[in-house]
Amino acid sequence: MTLVEWKPYTRSERDRIRITETSCCAAYEWACQGGHFLILRRSGKRYEEAARGLYRQARDTWESLILEHARDHMERQKGKGNSNGQTGRVPKNRKRSVRADRDRGIPDRR
Question: Looking at the record, which segments are called Disordered (predicted)?
Fold first, then answer.
């Protein structure tokens, strides 16, 4: 488990923040503010920040959190899946092809 120190996130009105990446489930957000990099997460109605600082240190923490989050998802899926560990669901971001639909006898929806 990645040990990360989370602090309440505060921002003055003049500071701009750029969020350039969001993890799955929007659990974490990779951000840049005033030349510093940081990780944000929602905690109730507020945000918390971690790893504020230079790119490499903040990025190492980001990558650790993302890997840990993905492992958590895989562990949860193991309990929900069938005997071979699959859930039988198609990921939302996967598009069904027209050819595959036609092979199954599904008419073209276009």
Answer: 69-110
Query: For 25-64, how does the pLDDT look when each residue is reduced to its tens digit (9 = 90+)?
Result: 899 999 999 899 999 999 999 999 999 999 999 999 999 9
Q: Which residue has the tokens 């039988």?
A: 88
Closest CA to 54 of 29, 68, 36: 36
Name the nearest CA neighbour of 38 among 59, 22, 68, 24. 59
Take residue 52 and report the two structure tokens written for it. Answer: 């504020």
How far is residue 54's CA from residue 57's CA, in Å, rounded to a whole number?
6
**C-alpha distances out from residue 8 to 98, 100, 101, 105, 107, Å:** 48, 49, 49, 55, 53
